[in-house]
Please model this.
Amino acid sequence: MNEYHKNNNENKDRIYIADMKVCDVNGDCIPDIVWILGKKIYEDSPLLVDLTLRIRCGKTCNVNDYPLAFDAGINPKLFLGDFTGDKICDILVSIPTGGSGGYIYNYLFSYVNNVLTPLFDAEMFNQGIPLEAEFDDCYKVRIYNENLGINLTLDVSTISNIDELYDKNGKLISPTSGEVLALGGLYPIDMDFDNIFELASIQRVIGRYNAETLGYVRAIWKFYDNILNLERIEVVSY
Model:
């Protein structure tokens, strides 16, 4: 306990730059500077706390700080690019949380006219698409959300020890559920090569326990009509 307080006191006022990018984010055609800043509890740990988004206006040199509600993570990253089609860079913040779940927390902001505006509900979006996972006969897992009209099938025939769930004819011995976890990755992609970015999200599908990875749900999201829309969803084997 004493060692913890010693390290905490040594680092509590020291600011670390987790990432920095340069792009016009406020729409005045002059490049701005964007940082993610944080503090360390332990000098030798990659964990940063009190995460803050800092933006310096390239025209006026004014600096604004925006503390992030989800304010702790491992090696936070920035991506600046146009997601809305207004030809102004938006700000994507990705914060890996560490741990066995492999979760990642994300924000997407517009900063037009120096006003920070969320482009999606971070609390809801980072939970991922709500999906159920149920084992089925013939070494298949059904991944679905009836309300959203999503019905996907995952082949798990190559998963180690999966045959414990099936008889010699490939029939499921007893009802078994898996789970589709929250977001584990979010990546900018330009599918149309038009300099307007989409987002690709990843959710891990597990079986009977967390270490039993069955595959991944991949989804493509595109911003239009002032909201982020689900364009495509698929499932891939592990």
Observations:
- Confidence is low (pLDDT under 50) at residues 1-8.
- The CA atoms of residues 39 and 87 lie 33 Å apart.
